[in-house]
Write a structure and sequence with these properties.
Polyketide cyclase; NTF2-like_dom_sf; Nuclear Transport Factor 2, Chain: A; alpha+beta
C-alpha cells in the first residue's frame, strides 16, 4: 500500500526531478498493465514513455487524492483524484476521476487504470 500512497506525489515531482522519476518507476512491476480511459498498454517501458509524454505536453501538474481503499470482493484498490495543470501551450485545466490499482506479491503496482471523468482526457495517448 505504501507504493500507492507515494504514487501521486512522485508523479508530480518527476516532472522536474530525475531521482523522483526513478523512484516513481520503482513503484511498478516490470510487466505493469495500465489503462488510460479504456486503452490498455503494457510494460514498464511503455509506462515511462507515457509519463514523459505527459510532462512534454504539460508545463506543470499537481494531483490530489482522497486515499486508497480496498474494493470489496476484489484484490483491487481505488481512489478518487483531482488534477490541475498548465499545458505547454499555456492554457490551464482541471480534471477529476478515479484510479484503480492492483499490487503484486512484492507490493509493486502491477495494474493501474485511470478513469477520468472527461473521456477525452487521454485522446493524445491512444497510439
Amino acid at each position: 500500500m505504501e507504493n500507492l500512497n507515494r504514487y501521486f506525489d512522485l508523479f508530480d515531482q518527476s516532472r522536474t526531478s530525475e531521482q523522483a522519476f526513478e523512484e516513481l518507476v520503482s513503484l511498478f512491476s516490470d510487466d505493469i498493465v495500465f489503462v488510460l480511459n479504456g486503452h490498455e498498454k503494457q510494460g514498464i517501458e511503455n509506462w515511462k514513455l507515457f509519463v514523459k509524454m505527459v510532462f512534454k505536453e504539460n508545463a506543470d501538474i499537481k494531483h490530489m487524492f482522497e486515499g486508497w481503499k480496498a474494493v470489496e470482493g476484489t484484490d483491487m484498490f481505488e481512489t478518487p483524484w483531482a488534477v490541475c495543470g498548465k499545458r505547454a501551450s499555456g492554457s490551464v485545466f482541471t480534471q477529476t476521476g478515479k484510479d484503480i490499482a492492483k499490487l503484486d506479491k512484492n507490493g509493486k503496482i502491477s495494474y493501474l487504470e485511470n478513469v477520468p471523468d472527461d473521456t477525452n482526457m487521454f485522446d493524445t495517448y491512444k497510439n
